[in-house]
Automatic annotation (TrEMBL):
Biological source species: Pseudopithomyces chartarum
Highest taxon, organism lineage: Eukaryota
Protein name as it appears in the record: SET domain-containing protein
Entries under SMART domains matching the protein: SET (SM00317)
Domain SET residue range list: 9-176
Amino acid sequence: MAASSAANLTITVTKTTKKGRGLIADIDIPCGSLIFSEKPLLTLYAWARSEHDYQTPHAKLLADFAELPKHKKRIILENLSISDTSDFQRVVFQEFKNYKSPSWRNFNRKYGYNAQKILTAFNTNAIGPHLGTQAAMLNHSCVPNAYATFEDDIQELTVHALRDINCGEEICISYLEGAALFQPALPQPGASPATRREFLQTQRGFDCLCEACLEVSEWVADQYQLNDHPSERLRAELCGLITEYRRCDSQLRKKWSRVNSHGLDPDSIRYLVKIATGIVELIEQLGLTSIEHLEWYENIAKWERSLEDEDAAAEWQGKIRDIVHMCVDGDLQDSKHLLKEV
């Protein structure tokens, strides 16, 4: 859905502890709201424009940079680029050099700018093929609260809230979307945490070590020593699975807002069912089965129904009824009320 720049909400650029600059919400932002929209500074075209005889899209990108006003060049070179020539910059530049392209030194001499610095700044901060000013400040989260896209009809990058965002909360998107500029390819739904971490390291130059990116076993080992009580290890594993579920669920929510449920990838839904089933098993092992945790049973029933597996959905609905009857201690009136709610 197209959105107007006039609908931009109040946000603040701030320095975060580990991720550099970030965007913070100055007000409560309801789910689905347009947070901001902006025209891109630069766009990496899928093919070179033949009328200008550019040999690669990246040569066109550099030529477009040279035509930008001085203040926009400063934004890219001073605010969006990495200060030192890191290993990541060298890897990115080498990947770009693999294309048949004009001499990068010639570009440096002709325009007086460092091609390596420009291309690395673009790759590190772009949303797909588009580099924005505010959008470049959005940090990554494996469980994002917002999503960014390019609206063709208004030719702007737009950022919407994926869930309710509280005042003072950082606005984050997932970098595991869009299109990969070079290898490795974009991780598929249900890809292992190791695959996601490899992608983020190669494409964006950082190692994501959150609980959703770490293997559950790594997360457990990091949080608890081996001699700790077994129940604590189970709780740590439960925490890791819940985070992974929310990460995948947030991706599906975004897709659901664009297509009906029948247009969703069945493999993604089956992966969610697998994770949610593991969560339920851990809840039961920990003796935490209660009405408070019915949402996981309800989630599984919902996804099974979307897969048109009515038998499996009915089985989970039966488990929900059993838990309700058990938890209300046989009180028929309370049971009917709770069952009506679920």
